[in-house]
């Protein structure tokens, strides 16, 4: 009987427009919007060439070398980092005020830098200028101490390597932007509550003819609920896996570095999301609009407190209400992904996954008892 219920509930849900939208279409649309918003910061090739004004106030070998170096430096894809504009001071200041350029480099006895708004381009320009100044001063000091060793100093500077690399404790490269997409997957999991609402509605005789037929059938309520739940979770789970494939292989977002643990998180997240909607539908005493409002408030509220809109809010919750933060299902999902990307062992991951599993089981039990206690004078 369980598989019979499962098969026909899958067919029923796939014919429901709302279920198809929330399981397949909505997560892909949201992932695309997130990519448009944050994706460019993940792709290094999207950094634009920086417009810089050069104002020459004095001729010197140091200044000529600086300009030559600016013209040569490139991004990893071969695109030039700086676009140099040779201007007089007045024109340069006018363009800086209009935000047509990122900064002004004045080449006099000293190299000085003027910048407008802060940003990635301004940071790159400042770092380049400071680094060049440090290296040139090092060569000058070497010439003062021992002129014959200047060439050795120059070669050391040209062949210098970066020996420090930002990695996680598990040895994986940290990608902070990817965390937004993990939070997005968490929210998409909880939006399975809209599919769960259909299950809660169709298990109660007062809400639909399907509920009335199920109530008078000889099948146990638990079997009915578990069959419906398995069908809904299957659809939602497949939908989110398609979203992951879309993010990873179409949009090229670096997510799911450890596939199996991540799949386990997504599965439990789907169970949690579907059960949130089913439980809300079983206990809410009001119209369908009221049930939708409750499910939406829980899903969006949980996602907001997990740091989806602002990471500062997540840190604030961890500080002022750590228990609430740990029990928040969206936070548990995000923390699972965070743990997998940061730590080499699975201790913290296991704790967050256990919290998520326990909450899902509790909701299944509560939904069952909420339906079981319903009594009807007539059906």
Topology:
Elements: H1 2-14, H2 17-42, E1 50-56, H3 61-72, E2 82-86, H4 89-97, E3 103-107, E4 111-115, H5 120-145, H6 150-158, H7 178-190, H8 193-201, H9 209-216, H10 221-250, H11 259-283, H12 288-305, H13 311-320, H14 322-327, H15 329-342, H16 347-372
Parallel strand pairs: 1-2, 1-3
Antiparallel strand pairs: 3-4
Overview of the molecule:
This protein is mainly α and 379 residues long. The protein has two domains: 2-41 and 171-372, no CATH class; 46-158, Periplasmic binding protein-like II (D-Maltodextrin-Binding Protein, domain 2, 3-Layer(aba) Sandwich). It has 16 helices and four strands. A four-stranded mixed sheet has the order 2-1-3-4, sandwiched between helices. Helix 2 packs parallel to helix 10 (221-250), helix 7 packs parallel to helix 11 and helix 11 runs antiparallel to helix 15. The protein is elongated and about 95 Å long. The two termini are 23 Å apart.
- Counting DSSP H or I runs of 4 or more residues, the number of helices is 16
Give the strand line-up of the largest sheet. Answer: 2-1-3-4
Estimated share of beta-strand residues: 5-15%
User: Rg, please?
Assistant: 29 Å
Order of helices and strands: HHEHEHEEHHHHHHHHHHHH
Low-confidence stretches: 160-174
Shape: elongated
The N- and C-terminal alpha carbons lie at a distance of 23 Å
Largest sheet, in brief, is: 4 strands, mixed
Structural class based on helices, strands and sheet pairing: mainly alpha
Count of domains:
2
What is the averaged pLDDT score?
A: 76
Number of strands: 4
Helix content: 55-70%
């Amino acid at each position: 009987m369980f598989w019979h219920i499962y098969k026909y509930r899958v067919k029923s849900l796939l014919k429901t427009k709302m279920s198809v939208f929330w399981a397949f279409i909505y997560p892909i649309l949201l992932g695309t919007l997130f990519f448009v918003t944050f994706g460019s910061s993940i792709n290094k090739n999207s950094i634009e060439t920086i417009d810089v004004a050069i104002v020459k106030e004095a001729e010197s070998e140091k200044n000529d070398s600086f300009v030559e170096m600016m013209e040569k430096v490139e991004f990893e894809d071969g695109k030039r980092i700086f676009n140099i504009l040779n201007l007089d001071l007045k024109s340069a200041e006018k363009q800086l005020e209009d935000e047509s350029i990122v900064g002004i480099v004045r080449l006099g006895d000293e190299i000085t830098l003027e910048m407008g708004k802060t940003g990635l381009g301004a940071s790159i320009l400042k770092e380049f200028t400071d680094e060049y100044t440090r290296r040139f001063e090092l060569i000058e000091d070497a010439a003062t101490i021992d002129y014959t060793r200047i060439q050795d100093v120059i070669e050391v500077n040209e062949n210098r390597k970066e020996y420090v690399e930002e990695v996680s404790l598990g040895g994986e490269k940290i990608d902070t932007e990817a965390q937004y997409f993990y939070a997005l997957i968490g929210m998409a999991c909880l939006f399975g509550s809209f599919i769960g609402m259909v299950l809660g509605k169709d298990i109660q005789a007062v809400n639909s003819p399907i509920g009335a037929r199920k109530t008078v059938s000889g099948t146990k309520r638990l079997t009915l609920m578990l069959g419906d739940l398995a069908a809904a979770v299957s659809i939602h789970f497949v939908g989110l896996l398609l979203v992951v494939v879309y993010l990873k292989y179409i949009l090229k977002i670096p997510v799911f570095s450890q596939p199996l643990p991540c799949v386990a998180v997504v599965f439990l997240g789907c169970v949690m999301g579907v059960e949130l909607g089913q439980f809300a539908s079983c206990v809410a005493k009001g119209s369908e609009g009221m049930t939708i409002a409750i499910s939406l408030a829980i899903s969006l509220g949980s996602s907001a407190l997990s740091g989806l809109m602002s990471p500062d809010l997540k840190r604030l919750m961890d500080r002022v209400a750590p228990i609430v933060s740990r029990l928040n299902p969206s936070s548990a999902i995000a923390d699972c992904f965070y743990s997998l990307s940061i730590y080499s062992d699975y201790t913290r991951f296991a704790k967050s996954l256990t919290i998520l599993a326990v909450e899902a089981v509790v909701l299944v039990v509560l939904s069952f008892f909420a339906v079981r206690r319903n009594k009807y004078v007539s059906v």
